[in-house]
Amino acid sequence: MTSLGIDIGGTKISVIIGHPKKGKIIAKEKFLLPIESPEKTIERIQLTYEKLLKQCKITADEIDIVAIGCPGSCDYTSGRAINFPNMPLWRGYDIKKAFQKFIKHKPIIFDNDANCAAMAEKYFGTGKKISDFLYITVSTGVGAGLIINNKLYRGISLDAAEFGHMTIVKNGEQCGCGKKGCLEAYASGTSLARRAGVKDVPELLKEMRKGNTHAQLVFDEGIHALAIGIGNTLQLLNLEAVIIGGGVSTIGESYFQKIRKAAKEYTWPRPYDHCTIMQTSLLDDVVDYGTMALALSF
After folding, report:
1. Which helix (H) or strand (E) holds 214?
2. Handedness of CA 42, 44, 47, 48 (dihedral sign)
3. Pseudo-torsion of CA 141, 146, 147, 148, nearest 10°?
């Protein structure tokens, strides 16, 4: 099996060609998300796809399936975007139809990118040996995928594990999803930078190193928001592991030490002691592997 995998992120797009059964990415290219329109993004994806085919010396006929990770909820039957909180231009956009214009007679399947990442950990990463865990991505937004009894849990309306949109502050910060006080509005890379008055998370870290107390306060609030969500989840589900990925998670081990310490404040000792909070083993490629896991699950 050869798959085309596309990770539509809040700030960048990743396109891969892979061998899902071997768990191998054979070609990959990333580019920043065009802001003009979904149509411009799809055009760029098409050009990248054609470039990767040439690079791999294969034809379009040799692609067996197309798997797409989306940064929010979508209708998995129709392939239409429902709510991408950080990408308002995409709401209601028919992604499947757009891809069918240049990828014909191939299955095109979709899932939330955090669900893809959770499946990636289950198929190819640390989660292989863990039956119950939560995968959290902390990046442009905050998303999650939940594995229960070795299977992805989707919920009755397919909206399970929207971890970033649990309310942690009544009438709090405005979130891109439309609600107020969401965890994402405090812990995502976008919100951290905005609330600290800086361009991005690297600049926030630079300000913290300079002794900027406001930047430090915003960062610590983000840590505690994430810890509250983790603590509540562990109280509810008593999971074996919480695996964290996304751009913000690459800050380093100090980030995880702070999360572990804060999460302990919001969790009973037994569920906390039986859970390991760790960084994804698949790092920046986790959703790329997730598209291959999604292809295998089809």
Report:
1. helix 213-237
2. negative
3. 170
pTM of this prediction?
A: 0.92
The DSSP line for 97-133 is HHHHTTS-SS-EEEEEHHHHHHHHHHHHSGGGG-SSE
Dihedral sign for Cα 197, 203, 205, 211, please: negative
Q: Are 229 and 163 in contact (CB under 8 A)?
A: yes
Q: Map out the domains of the chain with their CATH numbers.
A: 3-113+290-297 (3.30.420.40), 126-281 (3.30.420.40)
Cβ within 8 Å of residue 57, ≥6 positions away: none
Q: Is the confidence at residue 239, as pLDDT, over 80?
A: yes
Which residues are paired to 277 by β-bridges? 242
Single-letter amino acid, residue 81? A
DSSP three-state, residue 58: coil
CA distance 185 to 195: 9
The span from the first CA to the last CA of the chain, in angstroms, equals 12
State the pLDDT at residue 182.
97
Residue 172 contacts residue 221 (beta carbons within 8 Å): no
